[in-house]
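Narrative of activities, Objective 1.

The group set out to show that a structural description can be obtained from nothing but a protein's sequence at a throughput compatible with the screening campaign. Below is one input-output pair from the validation batch, recorded exactly as produced.
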Amino acid sequence: MRQARAPAKPRPIDRRVAQMQSGHATKAADSQGHDERLEALGRSRRSDSMTQILHRHRFQLKGAAALALLSLAIPSSAAMADGFKARYSVKLIGLSLGSATLEGSVEPDAYQIDATAKLSGVAALVSSSRGAASASGLMAQGRIAPNAYATTSANATMTRTVRMAMAAGNVKASEIAPPFEELPGRVLVTEAHKQKIIDPLSALIMTTPEGGPVIGPAACNRSLPIYDGWARFNVVLTYVGLRQVKVKGYEGPVAVCAARYVAVAGHRPDRAATKYMENNKEMEVWLAPVGASRAMVPFRISVATMVGTTVIEATEFQTSPPEKSASR
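Output recorded for this entry:
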C-alpha cells in the first residue's frame, strides 16, 4: 500500500458519517494502453488512496426505490476546478419524502463529489434513514475513471458501510460491513464484472467530448457500467431532447435522457422487482452543466417503481463560476 504523504483534513461529511455510526454501535477504455495511462495519472494524483476511502450511504425510501450514495478520496489539487452544489426535493407520487444534496468539483483531469440524503415529513414517522457519501477519481478523454467509492446507510437499527478502492475503474479492494445475506438464485459476481466499472455516485457525472455542444445528444447517449460493491448493472441513457428550467442558481436548458436498467450480476432474475426494473420504460434523467466544464450532473431524476413514481428534483443548482444560461 502506498505511504500517505499527509493526512487529509476531516470534512463535514466525515463528521456526519462518524455521528451516524456512533449512534448505532461510460464507456470502457479503447485499449490497454489507455487504461495504463489512467492508472499512471491516478498514482501521480492520489494521496492516502486507501485511508481516504470513507463511507457510502444507501438511502432507502420505504416501499420505493433505493437511492445509492457514496464516499471519499480527495484529489490533491483544485486548480481550474468548476464547483457545483445542488439541493433536491425527494417525492413519491407527489408526497414529500425527504431531501438530498449533491456537491463537488470538476477539474480537467479529476473530479470529486459528495452527497447527503435524509427522510422528512410523513416518511420520517416510519423510518429515520439517512445517508452521506462521496466519490472521486480521474477524467481522461471524456471518460470517468473512479479511484474510490464508499457509502454508509443508517436507520434506527443498523448502519452498513461499503468501501471500494479502484484504479482506472478496476476494483482492487472492497468491503461490506455488515455483509449482505447471500440468498439462493443470486447471479454470481465475478472478478471480470469488477473491471472498467463506474460506482453509482461517479455515474452521476457525465462528460462530453470536445468539438460538440455540452448540452445535447452526447450528454446522454451512453451505457454506464455500474458496480456498487454488491451488484453489477448497466444504465443505458438515450437522448430525448432539451427542456428549459429555472431554479435558484441556474436558468437555462437541460438535456433530457431516457434511462433503462439492465441487470448483469448480483441480482436474482426471478425476483419481481428485478423483472419490473428490467421492463421499466418510465425512467428519465435531466442533466445540467457544471460551470464552464464539459461535465453535467443530474437536475432531475424520475423513476417509476412498483408503488409509484419517485422524483428527485433540484430546488437549487449553484455552480462556480456561476452558469446563468447555456447556449452551449
